[in-house]
Structure formats: C-alpha cells, structure tokens
Amino acid sequence: MAVGLFRARQAATRPPIPVEGDHRRVTDKTHTDALLAQKRGATAGAVDSALRLAVTEVAAFLDAAFPRYQSAALLTVPLTRLLQLYGAEALRAALAEALARNTPTLASVEYLL
How far is CA 110 from the centre of its chain? Predict the structure, then answer.
C-alpha cells in the first residue's frame, strides 16, 4: 500500500511522460527559462572565447554592460568585428577608456576607436 501511495504522489508531481505518437507540448516555465539561458550562453561562447583571449579587458566591459544589454551575444559579435578592424591594442584602450568614463556601451567604444 505504501508503494502505491508513493507512486501516485510521484506521478502527481512530474509532467506526463510522452507516449509515442503523443505530440502534446509540455510547458514548464522554469525549464524553458533555464534552456533559453543556456542557449544564450552557448551562442556567445564560441565568438566570446576568441575575443576574451585577444582582449582580456572585455570581461570587465561585458560585466559592466550586462544590465543594459542583458546578453553578451549582443556585444561579442560587434566587439569581435571591432577587434578585426582595429586590432587588440586599440580595442583594449577603447574598452579601458569606456570603463574609466563609466560608459560601458558599444556606441562609446565605437566613438573612442
């Protein structure tokens, strides 16, 4: 009897297990949010790692810019483009200056370059 109650309680707390041919969408807001956060992090990772290797100051800049942009991916692609155009030393100086002026925005870095 105790095993039956345990299984019933366990079944009530988990989403239904999809059966082959059952194409209903199971939505769990917490799970969806966690997947989206993981996906955002993964897309920024590949580009971001090359950028961080070339310009170590980019980590502090991205941390300071995060409240405004809410995604590192929105900044890493343009910053990588600026790295290719101007080089690591110029980008490093522009990032440091933007942080010193308390203006951690892409527009500020572009202006300083």
Answer: 22
